Amino acid sequence: MKRYALRIAGEPVDPVGGTWFDTQNPFTGQAWARIPRGDARDVDRAVQAAHRAFTEGAWAGMSASQRGLLLHRLADLIERDALKLAATEVRDNGKLFAEMSAQLAYIPQWYRYYGGLADKVQGTTLPLDKKGYFAFTRKEPLGVVAAITPWNSPLMLASWKIAPALAAGCTVVVKPSEFTSASTLEFAELFDEAGFPPGVFNVVTGFGREVGSPLVEHPLVRKISFTGSDTTGRMINEQAARHFKHTAMELGGKSPNIVFADADLEQAAFGAISGIFAATGQTCIAGSRLLVQDSIYDNFVERLLAVARTARMGDPMDPATQVGPVTTPPQLEKVLDYIDVAKREGATLLLGGERGSGAACGQGWFVQPTIFGDVRNDMRIAQEEVFGPVLSILRFKDEAEALSIANDVRFGLAAAVWTSDIGRALRMSERLQAGTVWVNTYRAISYLAPFGGYKDSGLGRENGIDAIQEYLQVKSVWINSGAVSGNPFVIR
Q: From CA 93, how far away is CA 227, in angstroms rounded?
């Protein structure tokens, strides 16, 4: 069985405690590798290394253009190793190889984009109201960044943090999910090959209390970027606030996917299916609440069920598989519990509702694609993030009711509208309380487009020009041209 090492200061190192834990393949249910079990001592080693790299040595002395060149070199190496890294992710999180390989093929663009943006960060000169002074602003990197990443798309979501942080001139310590750490540890090796100075990028694996909390609380960490549950995000934000650390939080969603009667119903049905069953529903932007206009409800639900019934569960490495396993045993139990809750609350089970079984599922942790009708918006299944292949269908009469239902939830990460009326599309996009609104599509992302949430879905933005600003701070510089003198007790 493969045994991994931590990555600190450009070197593979064993955890101080000398212990490892198993990581399991969600399709086979079997352990396939051993992951280092780090603790606060390993966190301190990594943060100290990152701090040294930030304050002294080659990285601290590099120009922004030189940093950008390293990011471009890294992009080329990711591109070279994309299929290998994708296969590791599939083995660790059970998502489809088709999806993971597509993600890994796309990830290099983040590093190329931010590599090009690195030397475009600019301050400004200030038109002061005081004579005799020259003033300008500088935008400077925050320092050591702690990136805490989830298990559903480890390298994609890590790159959303790493690329802008490094472009800004920060250094990074990553704590990946204990369920899916292997790909991040393999990924770390590419930084050394690309020529990044030791300590610029570090990985400490382990559990939340043993690694995550010490990382958040370490006095040399100046920024925490977290993707995960709102419960954990709230705790991290509270910890960080005690030390006035900067934070960015992407905390999940309960996204409405709204279908109007004038939509292209065939495309809307495919959009609804991909919005919830792609990635086995294990994505923060899952379209888990399908809102369908009354006049087309019955017809559209039948159309939807006809497509959903064809979904093929199985080995995520098989190109024919459309729905893979749930990533972890605790998540499997959580999803099945929510299905039971929905039944008790009176939702009508239209499809699925059981643990996946049969030869195609092997010994994996599968949940059948599940659809509930007759869902009310006050039901838990419509309000709480399930993070699995479970779809709730709700009725609405008109735009006003659709907006009322869509916004009546504490999350606000994403939303979608299916309509042929451009006026309606613009009205809905303006009034939906979500950080991303799609029209006649779903789950489209880009390194160019800011991504983040409203309400309990988080703070800050990833991707686009906005993201690099999350890792910078502004300094004002005043210069007396020599014309100002006088009483030192008077503020000029």
A: 16
